[in-house]
Amino acid sequence: MTYSSEELLPGTQRALLYRIASAQVEGRTPSLVAAVQRQGRIVWTGSRSCVDGHAPDSDTQFRIGSLTKTFTAVLVLRLRDEGLLDLDDPLEKHLPGTGVGGVTVLQLLGHSAGLSAESPAPWWERTPGTLRPELADVLGEQTRMHPPGRRHHYSNPGYSVLGALIEAVRGASWAEVLQREILEPLGMRRTSTQPQAPHAGGWAVHPWADVMLPEPAEDLGLMAPAGQLWSTTTDLLRFAAFLVEGDDRVLGAASVEEMRAPSVPSASGPGEGAYGLGLQAVQQNGRTLLGHTGSLPGFLATLWFSIEDDVAAVVLTNATSGPPAATVAADLVEIVAEAEPRIPEPWRPLPEAEPGLLALTGLWFWGTRPNVLRLTADRGLELGPLRGDGRSARFVAQPDGTWTGLDGYYAGETLRVVRDVDGSVSHLDLGSFVFTREPYDPASAVPGGVDAEGWRGLGA
Fold it and tell me: Contact, 223 vs 156, CB < 8 A?
């Protein structure tokens, strides 16, 4: 029996609608629009509004705030993939004279450069970017809040610096590069640096009374790479699909996977989770959600996607505070994933298996701990404990006959097959650890040797 990506069940659709309807009421937001994508296809959209007949739809632009940072990070990774910079390069190498040139590109991407969270007064989100015409105006005098590389400290000016870096290397404005290298290839025609009709207006709702105040929508100038963009649910779900699978026209699969991996220890604040390279990662009920949140006066936005469930959700609102956009988006993912779990793809055998590699599979012992080596696609290997917890890793084959760890404790480590003089396999060497076919096999090169009297009982 095959499975096709059908519309969501009526009960699931009602649960999604109820969640956004209650969020709009409890958060007292003028309007809210949301959408869910499954297996790369939008399967549900919904919206609520305080004005009858004027609910936003999937083509209505909202300001997305710090979701802009993910786009900026993609542009930086493109520079790296083209060999124009290295993530470990100090900023000074490509953008001299900032006063923070010792921090690395990687630290800026992951918010571990130790820079201040905000630019100097006046409040940059509600004032024109023309008040900060130079990077020195964005960074201010107290730029270093923490030693670089020590901790996660979210920095909006840090992404302004990355925007300036992109402009310096590309020789074009951040907005031009963004349009040419991301928005056009991905077909994101309703994402822009300035609002384009139809778009929502930003509002502040009084905390103690049901009255509203319009918020200004300023051009952020040099701070634009940290939070300028306007977008729609349709465009953001298209972007989510790219962040899952990659697109060689923009950024390959390996590089978007790199963006998703934590770059520094988890942030210490409640619910902040981990941060990769322009992507946040949070845990909800055992599920890993990746994406980004965003806020600017008058707007809240969140994009979350679960790779395991192949479900993504976007929530956009036009209120300064109140509706918990991040929580609602996470709930939308969970509703679909729990109500209609992803149907696994059929099991299929490998297209081929080399006899020599097949002979390596099975039990291997690290000391007395049993592990299992499995053969995967493209001559890959997977090593993990026979039972219980322990170190597991996938390994990718290298041209020289070794394998390199892809994840876990052994990420980047080399796995070698060590042979005796007659060509038979003696043991596996993994980062100097010896894995043998029998526990402490005396016939293998076990470091420290094996007691000549062998295994013994209590009475020996």
Answer: yes
Q: How far apart are CA 50 and CA 94, in angstroms?
A: 49
The DSSP output letter for 449 is -
Query: Which H helix or E strand runs over 158?
Result: helix 156-170
| Spatial distance between the Cα atoms of 124 and 442, rounded to a whole number of angstroms | 69
CA distance 28 to 300: 13
Cis peptide before 262 (omega within 30 of 0): no
pLDDT of residue 1: 30
d(CA 154, CA 146): 11
Say how far apart CA 433 and CA 393 lie, in whole Å: 14
Q: Which strands form 393-397's sheet, in the order they lie side by side?
A: 362-366, 369-375, 381-385, 393-397, 403-405, 414-419, 425-430, 433-435
| Rounded CA separation 32/89 (Å) | 42
- How far apart CA 216 and CA 10 sit, in angstroms, is 40
Q: What pairs with residue 124 in β-bridges?
A: none
CA distances from 283 to 15, 75, 270, 334 (A): 21, 27, 11, 11
CA separation (Å) from 159 to 32, 62, 131, 170, 327?
A: 27, 21, 18, 16, 25
166 in helix, strand or coil? Answer: helix
Average pLDDT value for residue range 292-305: 97
Kindly state the average pLDDT of the residues 364-377: 95
Q: What is the Cα–Cα distance from 306 to 287, expressed in whole angstroms?
A: 7
How far apart (Å, rounded) are the C-alpha atoms in residues 179 and 173? 10
Which DSSP letter does residue 182 get?
Answer: I
Chain position carrying tokens 């604040």: 269
CA-CA-CA-CA torsion sign (226, 230, 235, 236): positive
> Is the confidence at residue 260, as pLDDT, over 60?
yes
Whether residue 165 contacts residue 105, with contact meaning beta carbons closer than 8 Å, is answered with yes
Interatomic CA distance for residues 227 and 225, integer angstroms: 6
Q: What is the full DSSP assignment across 66-122? A: GGHHHHHHHHHHHHHHTTS--TTSBGGGTSTTSS-TTSBHHHHHTT-S-B-SSPSSS
Between 137-146, 202-211, 238-247, the lowest mean confidence (pLDDT) is in 137-146
Mean pLDDT of 414-419: 96
Please provide the average confidence, as pLDDT, over all residues in the chain. Answer: 93
> Can you read off the two tokens belonging to residue 107?
């630290």
The whole-model pTM stands at 0.89
